[in-house]
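Recall the central idea of this unit: under ordinary conditions, the amino acid sequence of a chain determines the structure it adopts. In this exercise we apply that idea directly, starting from the sequence alone.
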Amino acid sequence: MNSIAPVSELLALQETLYTSRNPTRRWLHVSRRDRVEELLRRAAAEGPTARALEVGPGSGVYLPLLAGLYDEVVAADVEPAFLDQAHRLRETHRNLVPMADDITNTDLPPASFDLVLCSEVIEHIPDSPGALWGIHRVLKPGGLLVLSTPQPLSPLEVAGRVAFLPGVIDLVRRVYREPILATGHVNLLAERELRRQMAVPGFLIVDSFKSGVYLPLVAEFGGRTALRLEQWLERRLSGGRFDGLLWTQYYLAKA
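Accordingly, the structure predicted from this sequence is:
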């Protein structure tokens, strides 16, 4: 993943998101994490648990859980600082194996993993078809992919682009009083296109769903009342014709 800010700042941001003082910001990221973890537990319960790979582990949010579910976990990234973070986690999780690797041109052996996790990574990779081919290549036949990525028309992604306009970002940072960095999203994929790209190498989607509602300004100034409204809207939109407005799409797919 090519960063657009110093990786040390990205690590600090990723760690802040789960403890944000803003209820909506905290909920969006904690609930996304919880849904990914549910899929990981489901995958481990349904298939072999010898080897797992996380593509782009970032700050390593999911690595401790993966290390508890699988005999060996490879953490592959192109950013040295993220690999350093994985090495730190290895001090308490000895079955972690940090490795420098680009999934679009991977050196990992074919058919060598029971599970691949790719969470909030594909949107940072211009060559998403190449990444999906690489993931399919390293999965064993019948192996599982857990993938999550933002939806391009969600209000959060649209607002994120507006937030970094000249003069706006300073106001946003004063409101949040927390790290606010550009997302680095260069390849946001709508559901139809993502499903098409996953089908090309041969993925079979076992399950999919979406979550997360963000209401601009309401989220910033409405506190917990805004959060309750957003959670209600999430339930109303989920599975309906307007679920493209939800922030994150999730997939469990079989190679």
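The longest strand covers residues 139-150.
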